Amino acid sequence: MQISLRAKILVGLAIAITAYVFFGPGDEQTVEASKSGAEVATRSTRPTHAVRAASQRRDPSQTLYLLAHRVSVSGDDSANTLFAAHAWYVPPPPPPPAPAPVLTAAQEAALKTPVAPPLPFAYMGTYTADGSEPVFFLTKGDRVYNVKVGDILDGTYSVDSMSNGQLLMTYKPLQIQQQLTVGSAQ
């Protein structure tokens, strides 16, 4: 009976692996710093299978100490940042805030005085019928108003009078009068 070369290689490989598992180096080669030199010398010899199984067990407190003081030699960041570019620029601190401006009494009073919004109306024209009051045509956006003195617009502005080419209107929420130029003096 003749064994093929392939079978001989596989059997030899199996024998080599088995021999390494049984007779190869194990955990008994580790040296602990707290052990004396005599114990280290006895541990470096190859123990029997029963002693090897017992030596693989660790004291639970020693295991907790090793877990608590574990140091990662090769973290994810260390390999990536070994040759990474580093910027040494440190931005300057922001400038301090500017001091608050000192206001005069007149400026403070002006800030406290309520101000009406600008007139939203534009003058379009005037029509005066024989012997009647003039009618003023004002626009606001796309809307056209035909107003007379005494009318109220949008519940916000009242038309008070007309003099020297100015239509005097009052902003009703603040009772502030404003002027709208409507033409030359009449």
The helix fraction, in percent, is: 25-40%
| Strand element count | 7
Work out the helix count: 6
Shape: elongated
Unreliable runs: 29-54
Compressed to H and E, one letter per element, the order equals HHHHHHEEEEEEE
Q: Quote the beta fraction.
A: 15-25%
Spatial order of the strands in the main sheet? 4-5-6-7
Query: Main sheet, how many strands, which sense, barrel?
Result: 4 strands, antiparallel
Mean pLDDT: 77
Compute the separation of the termini in Å.
Answer: 138 Å
Structural class of the helix and strand makeup?
A: alpha+beta
What's the Cα radius of gyration? 50 Å
Describe this structure in words.
With 186 residues, the protein is of the alpha+beta class. The chain is built from six helices and seven strands; from the N terminus they run ααααααβββββββ. It has helices at 5-23, 37-43, 49-55, 60-68, 76-81, 105-112; strands at residues 122-128, 134-140, 143-147, 152-153, 157-163, 166-171, 176-181. The chain is elongated. Among the domains are: 5-61, no CATH class; 122-181, no CATH class. The strands form two sheets. Strands 4-5-6-7 form a four-stranded antiparallel sheet, with no helix packed on it. A three-stranded antiparallel sheet has the order 1-2-3, with no helix packed on it. Mean pLDDT is 77; it is low at 29-54.
